[in-house]
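Predict the 3D structure for this chain.
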Amino acid sequence: MKTLALLVAAAACGQHTAAPAIDPAVPRLAVTSAAFPAGGEIPTENTCEGADLAPPLAWSGAPAQTKAYAVIVDDPDAPDPTAPKQTWVHLVALTTATSLGAGATFGTNDFGKTAWGGPCPPIGRHHYHFKVYALDAQVGAAGVSKDALLAQMKGHIVAAGELIGTYQKKK
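Done. Predicted structure below.
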């Protein structure tokens, strides 16, 4: 009962389940973006200060048993990186391709959209974690939340990788 109360309290505060840590025993996916290097700044065109377009994202190195991919982009620095209070979800996506694009199915992000919601940090430089999970089964559906997707992914992750980008508002 105490665990249920804590889960309800966390949900009410906008808290999300942390995406699974990348297990060192699980094969690694190489996750890249043509828009920014690992640890680099996400271009303005991919943020609320620009066109808010999703940056190109690709991955490789999935094992043969891979049937689908889950992509989660979140910001653990919200609202202020010096005193983070929650992890803000920018993208939840499902695809069978090795890049994010046409044919992807989108879950619901913390902007309430089933699409990319670009960086728009209220203060300071935030870190955006682009996590890709290779799965041995297709899970999730259009509109799925991050937490529901994470629950459905349990026991199905066969490889994973991450790319981190940063952004701080210019204005």
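Helices lie at 2-12, 146-153.
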